[in-house]
Amino acid sequence: DTLTRREDYVAPSHWIRTVDLSFDLEPAKTLVISRMQVEPNADRPGQPLRLDGEDITLTRVLVNGESVSFHFEEGQLVLDKLPAEPFQLEIRNTCAPEKNTQLSGLYTSGGGFFTQCEAQGFRRITYFPDRPDVMAVFRVTLKADAKRFPMLLSNGNLVESGTLDKGRHFAVWHDPHPKPSYLFALVAADLVCREQKIRTRSGQDHTLQVYVRAGDLDKTEHAMNSLIASIAWDEARFGLKLDLERFMIVAVSDFNMGAMENKGLNIFNTKFVLASPATATDVDFGNIESVVGHEYFHNWTGNRITCRDWFQLSLKEGLTVYRDQEFSQDMAGSPSARAVKRIEDVRGLRQTQFPEDAGPMAHPVRPDSYQAIDNFYTATVYDKGAEVVRMMATLVGREGFRRGMDLYFARHDGQAVTCDDFAQAIADANPDSALTTRLDAFKRWYAQAGTPRLKAAGRFDAETRSWTLTLSQHTPATPGQTDKWPFVIPVAMGLLQADGTPVAGSERVLVLDSAQQSWTFDALDAAPVASLLRGFSAPVILEWEASEAELFTLLGHDTDAFNRWEAGQRLAVARLLGAVRAGAPLVLDAAYLDAMRAVLRDAALDCAFKELVLTLPSEGYLAERLAEAGEPVDPQAIHAAREAMRAQLARELHEDWAALWDAHASTGGYRPDPVSCGRRALANLALANLVLDAVARGDTVWPGRALQRFKDAGNMTDRLGALAALVHGRSPLAAGALERFHAMFRGEALVIDKWFALQAAAPEHDGEVFARIRTLAKHPDYSLRNPNRARSLLMTMTALNPGAFHRADGSAYAFWAEKVREIDGFNPQLASRLARALDRWRALAEPYRTLARAAIEQVAAKPELSPDTREIVTRALA
Ligand code: B3K
Ligand code: ZN
């Protein structure tokens, strides 16, 4: 297995200016003819041309119509003795789409043909310099059986179509925009489409299409609306217009990830397209909006300007996540709904990226090396990358960021560039900004891995009536990086008086750019309460020893909604970890319960916000807090403490839960707007608490109501919420409801995924949940071949259910190892994702640590492990 290093980048030896691709599509054997206009790179004369290829069969190579000599070297097709002038290269090869179980390259799903080329799938279709800095204009001819594959789609515009003999037909597509091979796509399948013509603000006409299987047309309205909203948003916010006459989205049920931004022909996992109130939850509706937006925004940030090499992946991913997060916030509208979205994003970052940054896979936002690039589509590249862009926007201001984006496009449209180019454009457009004066130091965010610890200490001087805040930073070592330079950390903050009144004029953004700095605030009558890192202005761990009184003040009064929520989480963490550390049962104090009651009763707060405050930090988050402190993680102790706290919140706040249920259980006709979603979320949380408490007390009224709710529900959010209340509350009514749910939705694959996931997410109790997962893995509807279905049990257990996964007998680890090995045999990308489940094994307490290590070794011991999974387990064991 070979390592690719960022520093080894060399420009391509040849440019490919145009590609004329022709496909004779047959599931068993597809013939590909590729005719390329090749131009030697004047900067690298005399070099051989190396073409990537994988799992395909070469049948002929012609240069200017003549056969030439070639040989293979490390899997590449090498042509030397080439003309020094531009020439035509023709390659013929075959591939076997129906045998392509990796879902990378050209593969079949549900009887149709689909492609996935990012990052290195194009080489599984034909021989090509499969690297993002080679950009060509594509013309594509598709030929296939007309009955089985009535829709023939590729990037760009349809130029010609018609019938052929033997029941076949063809279509010719032309994409005028030069693009790298990873953005190529084709679809040949039996699909129907929702179409909408739009005229944009700038007066251009476009045709938008969403392609799905025949029965799914009624579930495409939300995706279409999300696409229309995305187009309008990018034009309004960034002045970026749709540059295509035709923009297509295609849904496919076998897909390794969420979606793919192929130029003009986005291909989506069905999970991020299909939604009806009856089959999709509020969360699904929100995810569809953000993923449709994300892929659409790539049209500029990714496609018009792409990455020079894969180490620059965050150039497009970090920026596009930032853009989709901004889009979702703007769609949410009210300040409070925006804050809710921000809290959810930060919760996600801390749940996945922080552990990644603390484990064996820790890597900079711009990595230095990889074995399998697919392993670097990570939370660090995406979500921390988005935080890096957000910090730039904070440092140059909203208008400044827009100026920087404008300059970025003015300079680099049509090019393949680097993260440095992006940062330089933002800086150059804002010469006097706090970013530009510290640009080199700021760029350490791209180069250094690890989550900085930001320490804050305040000192009040009654004599001078001043308060001094000292901020210091330290970043722990990560693999290959022992010592770190200080980061540039924007710390948005403000001060409150002890009674919660804001201190006038105290709001500002401090910029910490050295190991330690102090700031003094004058004219204060008493020590203030500091609200630090508002809106989570930097991806750091804030070590701030706030007193309980200060946290209660912040929870009750901070003007920054993020920090109100954060204060509540800190109060919960203190109680949970207090119990874990003491090894004693958790007993909630009146002060905490009163504060939670006050939140629930506060008429000025939105339901969505209340639901977030009353949702306890996850077991995974709690584990990380212990690991950060260098304490061994006992997942079962954490699970027990959290369950005890949930039970007490359910009991002690019973009256409030019942009142909230009465007030919010019915939201009328279904609309996925932030206010209705918030009401449903809070009603579901209330119901979960009411059932949990009722089951504990042997009362049957609330479980009965939950069952009724489950039966009567008018939408999936309510129905799934009621089902979860019964199943997760361990009500005797759960089994019947589960059976009924399965029968109701047996034809809806995405709903059956939910049915598996809900059971795999149940709070563990005496090993019942893991036993159920093992049984469900043998269910006739379960399959590892479909990534969504595989993940529904396995990723849910490993990522979201530590109580079920970390067992003192190691049985769930062994089960995991067996599944990783099995999946690795046919789908390395899916396997290597799952293989990361035990990345944090070193942080575990015994016996988990030893058992986890043994399970990883079990995976590593598999002969012929894919390079993808090999990279993960090798790093984990290093
Ligand atoms: N760019 C794709 C991800 C491709 C993943 C390849 N392993 C989706 C996205 O980020 O929009
Ligand atoms: Zn993306």
TrEMBL record:
Residues 223-430 form the Peptidase M1 membrane alanine aminopeptidase domain. It catalyses: Release of an N-terminal amino acid, Xaa-|-Yaa- from a peptide, amide or arylamide. Xaa is preferably Ala, but may be most amino acids including Pro (slow action). When a terminal hydrophobic residue is followed by a prolyl residue, the two may be released as an intact Xaa-Pro dipeptide. Residues 549-878 form the Peptidase M1 alanyl aminopeptidase C-terminal domain. One of its GO terms (molecular function) is metallopeptidase activity. It is an enzyme of class 3 (hydrolase). InterPro entries: Aminopeptidase_N-like_N (IPR045357), Aminopeptidase_N-like_N_sf (IPR042097), PepN_Ig-like_sf (IPR038438), Peptidase_M1 (IPR001930), Peptidase_M1_dom (IPR014782), Peptidase_M1_pepN (IPR012779), Peptidase_M1_pepN_C (IPR024601), Peptidase_M1_pepN_C_sf (IPR037144). One of its GO terms (biological process) is proteolysis. Belongs to the peptidase M1 family. This is Aminopeptidase N.
